[in-house]
Amino acid sequence: MSNKKIDDLNTDTVDIQQHHPGLTTDAGLKVSDTDTWLKVSNGELVGPSLLEDQVAREKIHRFDHERIPERVVHARGAGAFGSFRVFNDNASKYTSAGVLTDSSRSTPVFVRFSTVQGSRGSADTVRDVRGFAVKFYTEEGNWDLVGNNIPVFFIQEAMKFPDFVHAVKPEPHNEVPQGQSAHNNFWDFFNLQPETSHMIMWVMSDRAIPRSYRMMQGFGVNTYTLQNAAGELFFVKFHWLPELGVHSLVWDEALKLAGQDPDFHRKDLNEAIENGAPAKWTLAIQVIPEGDEHKYDFDILDATKIWPEELIPVQPVGEMVLDRTVDEYFTQTEQVAFCTSHIVPGIGFSDDPLLQGRNFSYFDTQITRLGVNWEELPINRPVCPYMNFNRDGAMRHRITKGSVNYWPNRFEQLPPVEVAKGGLKQYPQKVSGVKERVRGAKFQEHYKQAQLFYNSMTDVEKAHLISAISFELDHCDDPTVYTTAVQRLNDIDHELAKQVAINIGGPLPGKSARVNHGKTSRLSQFEFKPTTPTIKSRRIAILVSDGFDGATVEAMRTAIKAAGALPFVIGARRGSIYPAGETPGKGEGIIADHHFEGQRSTMFDALFIPGGSQHVRSLASNGRAIHWILEAFGHLKPIGAVGEGVALLRDAAHLPGVQFADGSTGTVISDYGVVTAGSLTPSSLSEGLKIVKGAAD
Ligand code: HDD
């Protein structure tokens, strides 16, 4: 399908695989030698290099200036292209914005996902908030919805942002730690700034270690406004709901992946798109009419609060599909620049103080990062016509003809556009008051929603949350920090604080004066299942050694591919592995995609162990293969085993008490996510795939 933004970018794209003009300088001079500097030589001895070699000089100069400042936060990211389409008229009552109401449009988008704390080269799977920034290239200009995968934020006021970022970033004296909030300063900030209470619960939950960018919710976080054709105003919060449901890694996986495959999320996004599994989200809105602003016991303009969906329903509006990877990281993912201040008619801001400050900060940061003409860069420019009297500045490259560059001018060129013809309309809001540095009364309450979140977790999620906090506080070596943190957690939930105190040391907290209200909401990630159960794009490892059962592996590979998932054969070595009945060294056997040391079980969603007596004997004597199986089992991955593979699984995963099938009918031990069968039959295969699907659910 055509995508206006891709067409636009194509006008600036060269493909070096298609065009071979030969090597030239940037000025077009054909270069005959790009490897050896011009020197003085007498034929035998080679003397000094000559400064006059302008080709060498320019190559080095150009290289010296390749880096630009990385983003002060969200430095590490991955991007993709796609489109957004409205699929109902839910939004029409509230807004006149075509992008949210016109179902005949396909609006091009670019999305950049990111972590917040780490620098550009940090690992993907660290515990952190994930950025979820969407640029809609609409017919009325760019709309940037710059959100996160968590619906609330650490602070209420933009003015606190530098303090918060300094506190969470590596400490100033030694620049430690990288990609982590597990340090004194972050927790000190939490201790002293109670408005962080709600967000800290989310960041310590499994939401902060997603399995994939494709399996996260997104949230605009701030409160925006919508305005309809009749001029009525509504407050709105934006939600992205992933087609695949919300899934997380377990902490042990996240830790290991940070070393084993620091680009895990980046690769995952590209791998899925390239293998025909575009990433999809439903855009949904929560809407509050202007007159109901003060109806709730929380302030609807406070970014540390959610709007519980039991009170304000989440209404689906349209679907975003990401189906194209970037061609070049720097010019697209690195140079893309978002601004919360970029809205289109029908969408507006609210008095949310965090949003007001963000509206200043983003434009400003892009000037430092990319220069004043950053909006001219191909990835940032709109797909609709644009023209104004902003001029000049470093690296201006658009050439504008005409003899005037101001308004009004004698030629009446470029007059402002009337509101009726699509010009920006300001909502006529009556404002009066006293100039004061104040926060609203309801902004003073910080604990009710932190409790709401904690109460809404399942037991497993609560246990993970306690472990996560205990991990982080264990990395704080200042007793003031970790003992105070326990007191602060006690304001949220006494049991939670007690469990953490037991783990990290220090005095146990006494009963808190603040009692947990016990209420819950739909916040557990288990509530966000895939639209349709699927294993599409999931990575499934098949362990093999020489002498494996060839027919079973072939059948399994075919079944996995047919389900849209990705089979990977993992062997003792990368290269030919021979099935039973074939002589090693003769013929091709099966080519293992990876070997046990090169890839680890953490990188896969499920594991299959075929039968074959020689193959099982050899895996059983391979420590790494045993570790693979045990680790996959420990991480609760679905595991299938057939024939002799069953005994290997039983021994490797230390499951002596569990009954495995030894007949051909197959037994499902679903509590463990384990499926075994004497041989691969249609029924055992379908049971197995069901378990994998269930795990992906
Ligand atoms: Fe921010 C980047 C999300 C509060 C100032 N922010 C940035 C990005 C995301 C967010 C996803 C990366 C965009 C990209 O991929 O290029 N930020 C948020 C959310 C917030 C938030 C959801 C709370 C609702 N941010 C926030 C505040 C301020 C900033 C309060 C300043 C007052 N944010 C920035 C920034 C960044 C940024 C310094 C760094 C790089 C950039 O803008 O382009 O201006």
Automatic annotation (TrEMBL):
GO terms for biological process: hydrogen peroxide catabolic process; response to oxidative stress. It is an enzyme of class 1 (oxidoreductase). Pfam families: Catalase, Catalase-rel, Catalase_C. This is Catalase. Belongs to the catalase family. Its cofactor is heme. Residues 24-415 form the Catalase core domain.
